[in-house]
Amino acid sequence: MTILKVDIKQGGYEAGKSLIHNIAFSISSGSILGMIGSNGAGKSTTIKGMLGLLPFMEGETDIAEGLTYSYIPERQIYYDELTLWEHIDFVGSVEKIPNNIYKKRGEELLKKYRLFDHAHQFPSTFSKGMQQKGMIVLALLTEPQLLIIDEPFIGLDPNATKLMLRSLEEERRRGAGILMCTHVLDTAQRICDEFVVIDQGTMLASGPLEKVLKECGAEGGSLYDCIPDEEREGSE
Questions:
Q1: Which CATH superfamily does the domain covering 1-67+145-162+172-236 fall into?
Q2: Per-residue confidence at 15, pLDDT binned at 50, 70, 90?
Q3: Rounded to the nearest 5°, which phi and psi values hold at 153?
Q4: The pTM is what?
Q5: Are strands 56-63 and 2-12 parallel, antiparallel or unpaired?
Q6: Backbone phi, then psi, for 87, in 5-degree steps?
Q7: Contact 164, 152 (CB under 8 A)
Q8: I want to staple 211 with a disulfide (CB 3.0 to 4.6 A). Which of 14, 187, 194, 207 is the partner?
Q9: Under 8 Å CB-to-CB from 151, ≥6 apart: which residues?
């Protein structure tokens, strides 16, 4: 079942200065879509556009009625005055999750990501990897139908990365749709069902791996071959 359709004609931070254009894709429940591209290609801007966070955008995002989603941005965001557990309390309250349910989920997720002993500490004192794991805990707390993650593996050590991959697979089996924006292309190629390749604010290719490789002129290659070479671009 399709839970999200995105059709962005153009968008940016002010009218007349479009940073992204002609980007269209969809996400189905129980599938993982990998959004790839070089730094500055427009991936994060595309996510902001589909979430209605861009000041200027032409196009539309069609979200399934009643869809719940969680978004993990590239840069971790916490309230300075709240401990990690107070963030969990806050999310539970805002999302109107019954106390016994969100507290149980929160404890389970904290233990799973080895943050239980740090629950009553301020995230500002955490390492970057711990902060990322905390964001994952908060995102999964609501059991969203759509999970949007911008650079999910940033700051994670190998053990935490494996744990994150297991969580993504569990969410997929639960029926959630996942949009994963990442530079870790070998991992993306292994776990994603479909891909969107973005370069200079424009979609170069979309679809399953074989289709994307063909559209990028990289048949028989890998996702790395779909990323335009910066030196070649600079010489043109």
A1: P-loop containing nucleotide triphosphate hydrolases (3.40.50.300)
A2: confident
A3: -95, 5
A4: 0.92
A5: antiparallel
A6: -65, -40
A7: yes
A8: 207
A9: 74, 181, 182, 183
Residue whose structure tokens are 């335009």: 228
More confident residue, 236 or 166: 166
Which single residue is written with the structure tokens 């002129």?
A: 217
pLDDT in tens, 140-183: 999 999 999 999 998 899 999 999 999 999 999 999 999 999 99
Q: Position of tokens 């916490």?
A: 78
Tokens of 230: 């910066």
Report the alpha-carbon distance of residue 37 to residue 47 in Å, rounded.
13
Q: Classify residue 213 as exposed, middle or buried by CB count within 10 Å of its CB (0-12, 13-18, 19+).
A: buried
- Predicted confidence at residue 230, as pLDDT, reads 67
Domain ranges across the chain: 1-67+145-162+172-236, 78-143
Can you tell me the distance from the alpha carbon of 107 to that of 128, in angstroms, rounded to the nearest whole number?
Answer: 21
Asked if 134 and 126 count as a contact pair (C-beta separation under 8 A), the reply is yes
The secondary structure of 12-50 as a DSSP string is ESSTT--SEEEEEEEEETT-EEEEE--TTSSHHHHHHHH
Phi-psi region of 231 (alpha: psi -120 to 50; beta: other; left: phi over 0): alpha
Residue 233, pLDDT > 50, answer no
**pLDDT beyond 80 at 26:** yes
Q: Which of 85, 75, 169, 69 is nearest to 131 (CA)?
A: 75
